[in-house]
Write a structure and sequence with these properties.
With 89 residues, this protein is an all-alpha fold. The protein has a domain of 61 residues. 49% of the residues lie in helices and 0% in strands. It is built from two helices and no strands. Helix 1 runs antiparallel to helix 2.
């Protein structure tokens, strides 16, 4: 979706999600190493993601948007083909 078509609230929600995801990625440690974030901070980040998702869902419902759509590339192979059957004469 083009960011020009998004409302200010949608732009804020998208930016917040990106920032939270970046923080989570940047502070991630290797397997078995202790996290630099406290358990309460990690829980608060999860809560923020949940609130953002809920609000985005509310906005999508209010606008009548389909929330089950997934991104795709135009050159992706088709997952199904239509085959026409003709009755023999």
């Amino acid at each position: 979706m083009n960011t020009e078509n998004l409302s200010k609230e949608q732009q804020i929600l998208r930016a917040m999600r990106k920032v939270l995801a970046s923080i989570a990625k940047d502070t991630a440690t290797g397997f078995g190493k202790p996290s630099v974030l406290s358990d309460s901070t990690k829980e608060e980040i999860r809560d923020c993601f949940g609130i953002i998702s809920e609000r985005e869902a509310e906005i999508a419902d209010a606008l009548g948007l389909n929330r089950n759509e997934k991104p795709y590339f135009s050159d992706d192979p088709k997952k199904s083909n239509v085959i026409n059957f003709y009755k023999p004469e």
